[in-house]
Amino acid sequence: MTTTSATAPRTSVITALGDSPAISADEAAEQTTSPARSTRRGEYDEYEPLFCQLQDMADDDPRREQLRERLIAAHLPVAEHIAQVYRHRGEPSQDLRQVATIGLINAVDRYQPEYGRGFLPFAIPTIRGELQRHFRDSTWALRVPRRLKELRQALNEAATELTENLGRSPRPSELADHLGLSTEEVYEGLSASAAYRPESLNRSMGQSDSDTELGELIGESDGEFTTVENAAVLRRAMRLLPPREQRIVALRFFHDMTQSQIAQAVGVSQMHVSRLLAASLAQLREALTDS
């Protein structure tokens, strides 16, 4: 399939049709004011007879596939232009063009010339619908209710329209008035964006790849918190021991003294130190278990 590039006049027609898909190519051209554009009025009308031929051809006619591909290629600029309208939503441009092309192919295959007012008014909403389904079903990183997906999409479209009218980003209250929603529903829809494309922890916070990554700024679980908590519990349990046993335990486990050294410091035999340590540890273990 040969892809043709979109020229400025052709783009102007699609822009007009994109805003009012129910009008024909001739009517859209009349809305433009540039003399250069007005000379190309109805440039897609020449393909209408070919759609009639395509519909009349038998499915096994070898000329049918050639004509179908010609019609798809001729209207690719339409699909490409509509895809560009969604370029600020975070999806790769190539993916958007592919989805829009699928919508165009569906439009060519489903179009019936005897109905409607031309191919473009039929194709544009078909391509748009394919792109909107793509954003609704294929680009969410987390599973969210379909209601929130549709609400987020409605908010995006309303935000685009209001931004053009107001010359600034709309407030949540303005979005709510525009869509007939409550402010709480608007906040709920806006919060759904977090499930659409979560931030990568590897995203650089600066301009170069060597800058700090987002994940480096997020705190981690500190194992020392457990140590501090255990020390506080042990301190309370130590108070249950007599002063001499407290000193023996402290010398053994906090000052790393041997039982012989402790015996000399306390003035008892090493065997007695061993018995006092065993009894003290048993009492501490029981106190810590009960707590």
Instruction: Detail the poorly predicted runs.
Output: 1-41
Could you tell me how far the N terminus lies from the C terminus, measured between alpha carbons in angstroms? 76 Å
In one word, what is the shape?
A: rod-shaped
Q: Write the element-wise H/E pattern from the N-terminal end onward.
A: HHHHHHHHHHHHHHHH
Secondary structure class reads mainly alpha
Strand element count: 0
Number of domains: 3
Question: In what range is the share of β-strand residues?
Answer: under 5%
How helical, in percent, are the residues? 55-70%
Number of helices: 16
Task: Write down the overall mean pLDDT.
Answer: 76
How would a textbook summarize the main sheet? none
Radius of gyration using CA atoms only? 37 Å
Task: Describe this protein's structure.
This protein folds into three domains: 139 residues, no CATH class; 54 residues, Orthogonal Bundle (Arc Repressor Mutant, subunit A); 52 residues, Arc Repressor Mutant, subunit A (Orthogonal Bundle), CATH 1.10.10. It is mainly α. The radius of gyration is 37 Å and the shape is rod-shaped. Helix content is 65%, strand content 0%. α1 crosses α6.
